[in-house]
Design goal:
The protein has about 200 residues and is an alpha+beta fold. The chain is built from 7 helices and 6 strands; from the N terminus they run E-H-E-E-E-E-H-H-H-H-H-H-E. It has a single domain, classed as Alpha-Beta Complex (endopeptidase fold (from Nostoc punctiforme)), CATH 3.90.1720. About 40% of the residues lie in helices and about 20% in strands. It starts with 13 loop residues before the first strand and ends in a 5-residue tail after the last strand. The model has no long low-confidence stretch (mean pLDDT about 95).
């Protein structure tokens, strides 16, 4: 696997953050490990808007961070869509969600859902109608909480549906049930994505 720089990244790339040893990262990793999830060292996820800015759901909601500045000290595994232009669509959709949150403040962080995602099964994938209804709520400025991997999976399932591909063909199961470790497990061997390399901490 090659070591990447920001110039190698593309819109729509999924970034899986490795534990940085902070208290929160260690707590997430421990919870995922104790509940038998593979890849417990993966503690966060986001989607690239361009080759520098990652859109991610964190404590203050859906935020945009520059990998070269705010997120410089984190290491990531990088996965890229094998479906060409769909990646650009995912990047654009992620930026749209960020812009909506900046305007309405309605896309808060779902702490309780994040904790619950570590326990329990995969659930079911939302139907296309449910995805559309959720987006309608978001566009209308109504509140909708997300957590990191929940946001990534919902976003990619929605973009797939908009491109005539069933959301569950991209990621099976419920977005709100997908924790970071489970997302990493689903990406391994997923024909819709390929692992393109990693970003080392403090190297951009």
């Amino acid at each position: 696997m090659p070591e990447l720089r920001c110039r190698d990244l593309r819109p729509g790339d999924i970034l899986l953050k490795l534990s940085d040893g902070s208290f929160l990262a260690r707590a997430i990793s421990l919870g995922q490990n104790l509940t038998g999830h593979l890849n417990p060292q993966i503690v966060h996820a986001g989607v690239l808007f361009d080759n520098n800015v990652v859109i991610e759901s964190q404590g203050a909601g859906i935020l945009a961070h520059d990998l070269r500045v705010q997120n410089l000290h984190y290491a990531y595994l990088v996965y890229r869509s094998t479906r060409g232009a769909m990646g650009q669509g995912a990047g654009t959709c992620a930026k749209m969600m960020f812009d909506i949150h900046q305007r309405t403040g309605g896309l808060s962080y779902a702490l309780a859902d994040a904790a619950k995602s570590i326990f329990g099964g995969p659930g079911r994938t939302n139907t296309p109608e449910e995805m559309e209804q959720l987006l309608d709520r978001i566009l209308a400025g109504k509140g909708q909480p997300f957590f990191c991997s929940h946001f990534v999976v919902y976003l990619w399932q929605f973009v797939a549906e908009q491109n005539g591909v069933p959301g569950n063909a991209i990621f099976p199961g419920s977005a709100v049930k997908t924790n970071p470790s489970n997302l990493a497990t689903q990406l391994v061997g997923n024909p819709n994505f390929k692992e393109v390399g990693w970003l080392s901490a403090n190297v951009r």
